[in-house]
Structure formats: C-alpha cells, structure tokens
Amino acid sequence: MTAGNWTDWTDAVWNCIELMGVKVGSTFTLEEIYDAESILAMIYPENKHIKDKIRQQLQIMREHERLKFVDNSGVYRRIK
C-alpha cells in the first residue's frame, strides 16, 4: 500500500493536533479534532466539507505512521 500524499491540508490538521497538546503516545478522539473545524474553515473557506477532509487527512497520517487507530469509536493515538 502506498501512502497518500502529504499536503498543506495534512500540515494544517497536524498543526491542529499539536495545538491540542496531543503528545506522542497520547490519544484523541475524532470529535476532539472536529473542534478544529472552525479554524480549518478560516484557512480553507472554499471547502464546505471540512469534517470529511479532516478524516481524509487522519487517514494519510495513519498511512505515514504518525497516527494509529485505537478502536472503531474514533480514537487515535499519536505515534510520532
């Protein structure tokens, strides 16, 4: 499997994770990262599907082995 392309969008979501204070080994939920939706909407005002884009970027981060799924309830662990 090839990793998805890391883009400016991925950087923006990654920065939100860091701003949330998520350290290596810590977990966060999809709902918590959705709190960054308003920030991302200011950066990308043309995008009307921010939550979808967040999920897509989390998948790219998983493919790049930065995050790991903890369970099927939307919990992620930062691994890098």
Question: Outline of this structure?
Answer:
The protein has helices at 8-19, 30-34, 37-43, 50-63; strands spanning 27-29, 67-69, 75-78. It is an alpha+beta fold and 80 residues long. The mean pLDDT is 95.
- Which class in CATH terms? Mainly Alpha
Number of helices: 4
CATH homologous superfamily grouping: Winged helix-like DNA-binding domain superfamily/Winged helix DNA-binding domain
User: How do the strands line up in the largest sheet?
Assistant: 1-3-2
How many structural units, i.e. domains?
Answer: 1
Number of strands: 3
Distance between the terminal alpha carbons, to the nearest Å?
A: 20 Å
**Within the CATH hierarchy, at the fold level, what is the topology?**
Arc Repressor Mutant, subunit A
CATH architecture: Orthogonal Bundle
Order of helices and strands: HEHHHEE
Q: Tell me about the largest β-sheet.
A: 3 strands, antiparallel
Question: What's the rounded overall pLDDT mean?
Answer: 95
Radius of gyration: 12 Å
Indicate the overall shape.
globular
**Residue runs with pLDDT of under 50 for 5 or more positions:** none
Structural class label:
alpha+beta
Query: What share of residues is helical?
Result: 40-55%
